[in-house]
Design a protein that fits this description.
The structure is a homodimer of 247-residue chains. The first copy, chain A, has 247 residues and is of the alpha+beta class. Chain A contains 5 helices and 10 strands, in the order E-H-E-E-H-E-E-E-H-E-E-E-H-H-E. In chain A, 39% of the residues are buried.
Chain lengths: 247, 247
């Protein structure tokens, strides 16, 4: 038996997230069908993370088991000939049988892309959040540093229907905001895990600080109060990218 | 009477080029309807250039006349509320009555984007030409310099049904190839005008040089022979962008 770790990238616009759902097309389902077609047997896919509808992934990892002897490189090539063009297989490697894409994960990194201009880009539809008022990235970068540390992030988690509240303590290793191009502002955050909508609420809170709807230097207070209503809005899914997974 | 110069940007994927056609949706038609809706009278749009199906524009200029007193900035904003998201109005200014977006144009700049990796990008579908074999951009840059000058570029022009052969002499002011990111190779060319498919044939010829189907240092010979069959293939439309227009 072999355990294969597959790394993919996808544009989330046309999918209802990664995880299998009953009534909607997800990345997982499309990928599973493609792999099963190539291997000619049923597989069980283990994804590294749930992602929401419209969220993208620069680097997403998953694993599955097979007895087939197909070369990793050939599997990647075969996948890229049959997958739709918005899901791309990047690499594949054989890993220990005990490896699990989700439970073996040590750190995850997300980025959030803000197109900061009154004039939207016709080439980035569904790939960025358009925000027309000038962002002061230096101020937001300083504010974002308050997220670094181990805290109960209950204020930065939306309630999910039918889900009981889990442990809401998470560790953020790094967090910052920078202007990458004239009109492109990037929020980047790395942590041991993230709550439901957590990154999008972090971004929405920074936007509210930019708009003076939330005071500067109050992020630690918002965290301590464990009250979702004190944080900012949930920024739109289309700006969010799972950027890296560390094992 | 006012003559307004409008600058737009568009993703060409969903359009049959810029110019009005009888049986297909073009950028020009969509834009004209939008402007007429705002101004509440018929207009005659003069575009700076024809572009082919699937070709994009970072900066495209056009002009039209109106008696309405609408502020330029307000016209831009109004357009961006009613245009589809793949066409964006960038700016507008009042110009001399004699100004014509096409005939007043002094120079045009095109870029051609090549995604140079075996692994395509799910975010750049229809926005780049995927080419998987490693490109030597330094060699191609040196080869591209041969295009600079005033020549009869008949070898770099496809025959267009129903069009008689026009004057095929053009001046190329600048031309080059560079690797902009790890996987992104950019061909850039600036000239006084371009023949039908000329930029795409220039790119296709450089690709043929990369593939040793055409010998290095033979571009000048191909130009002198005025024979289309000696040049390379026509590179796909989706990598091509009208990048700038100089008046």
């Amino acid at each position: 038996m072999r355990n294969l770790l597959l790394t993919i990238s996808y544009r989330g616009t046309n999918y209802h997230g990664f995880q299998v759902q009953n009534n909607a097309i997800t990345v997982s389902q499309v990928l599973q069908s493609a792999i099963e077609k190539i291997l000619d047997h049923k597989i069980e896919l283990k994804g590294c993370s749930r992602t929401d509808t419209g969220v993208h992934a620069n680097r997403y990892c998953l694993n599955f088991k097979t007895n087939k002897s197909i070369l990793c490189l050939n599997l990647v090539r075969a996948l890229n000939t049959i997958l739709p063009s918005d899901i791309v297989a990047k690499s594949c490697q054989e890993v220990d049988l005990g490896f699990h894409a989700r439970y073996s994960c040590k750190k995850k990194e997300y980025i959030y892309k803000i197109w900061n201009s009154e004039i939207p880009s016709p080439f980035l539809i569904d790939l960025v959040y358009n925000y027309k008022y000038k962002i002061d990235e230096k101020i937001l970068d300083k504010q974002a540093k308050s997220f670094i540390g181990t805290y109960d992030f209950k204020s930065f988690c939306n309630f999910k229907k039918g889900k009981s509240l889990e442990d809401t303590v998470r560790t953020i290793y790094n967090c910052g905001v920078e202007r990458q191009e004239e009109n492109l502002v990037i929020f980047k955050v790395c942590g041991d895990g993230f709550l439901y909508n957590m990154v999008r609420i972090m971004v929405g809170t920074l936007i509210f600080i930019q708009e003076k709807k939330i005071k500067q230097d109050s992020i630690l207070d918002i965290i301590k109060n464990k009250d979702r209503s004190l944080a900012g809005k949930t920024a739109p899914a289309r700006g969010l990218y799972l950027n890296n997974i560390f094992y």
